[in-house]
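Pilot study result, target chain (409 residues):
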Amino acid sequence: MPADRAQTFAHPAFFDELSQQSSFVFARLQGASHGVLMHADGRQLYCTCPFFPKPCWHARALELLYSQQPEIFNTTEGDLPPWVHALLSGKPASTLPNKAPSREAAQEQRRHERLDRAERGMEDLEVWINDTLRRGLATIVYENPGAIELIASRMADASLTGISRSLRLLAALPPGNPTWTESATKCIADLCLALHAFRRREHLNEAQATDLQTFLGIATPKEKVMQTGERIDDAWAVVGKTEETLEKQLSVRRTWLLGGRTLRQAVLIDYAFGGVYEPTPEVGSIVQAPLAFYPSAYPLRALPAQEFKILPKKVEKLPGFVSIQSFAKAYAEALGQNPWLSHFPATFPVLSFAAGKNGKFFVYDEAGDALPLRCTEDEGWRFMAQTGGKPACLASVWDGQTLKCLLVV
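Predicted structure:
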């Protein structure tokens, strides 16, 4: 475990004042009052922290960082710091004067601490996945339900709240559901992909790493989004709202927007206990405000950077995919950028509604290609009556299997 911790924290954000002088390499821990020293020739390691055994994982992390990125250490001249002389002489080194870390540095350190806890959780997840695949997916249904609750709790303890929720939703799947096999397979596949991506996270770019952390349950703070997120100012059409119960009294509402000038899709996500949400603009309205987008390889989630200004217009038509084939291509490209994309917004200028068998409904384009709708029978017939059997313009969200209709104009 110390080796794992050293590998996790071998990152510039964990250290401050990275320095090299003669054959000595030294730094201080970010936000802490301890110094770390390495004699580069003989690789002797020292640290002023009180933890044992020595060398501690702080020193191991500095050694790894120096071997991986020696160019980031600043070459200094003059006398070595007093605490360095104390460590070299074998005397107890007093702690360094406290240096208050910046807010950004503190957030970065907390993020690395969460990844350290996640490392232990991912090891447990790997064992559970391998065991489940060895015994077969059916064991998820027929074994003691407490088994999945146990691994879900262990994921929550490891700060992997996103994975914990996925496992609890997997446990709640009704075995008689005709799509149970597909849903269970997709859940396991997403977990396997996250596991392998976590093992190779040093090869991910910043946007990809953020998408992975979001899936794991490590959220980007709103303050950081407002400060550094991509900003787009546009007149936004409010094309729909969806609500979903996640667990017990926790629910989520998604408000879907489409930029009139940029054609950018965006979603505002709000969570609530007991279903009480903050008010948002009505569906069909048009609002003006800059949005700050969360970092992602396929950015969708955003925050209003200013209060919405409601414009005296209503949504009358929507640009979008001219065919289902073009929609499918765009969805495949989006998955290539963010494989954990659970909701893909799509607008279609011209689609027709049709009724199928067993109360099922679908939409089709001029080429005859079709997509299944996720709706009740009453909703399906209402769509049919609203359009009168003629092509219509609609906004929707695709979940990978079915299309949820948000707005028909």
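One observation from the pilot: DSSP finds twelve helices and 16 strands in the chain. A full batch analysis is planned for the follow-on phase.
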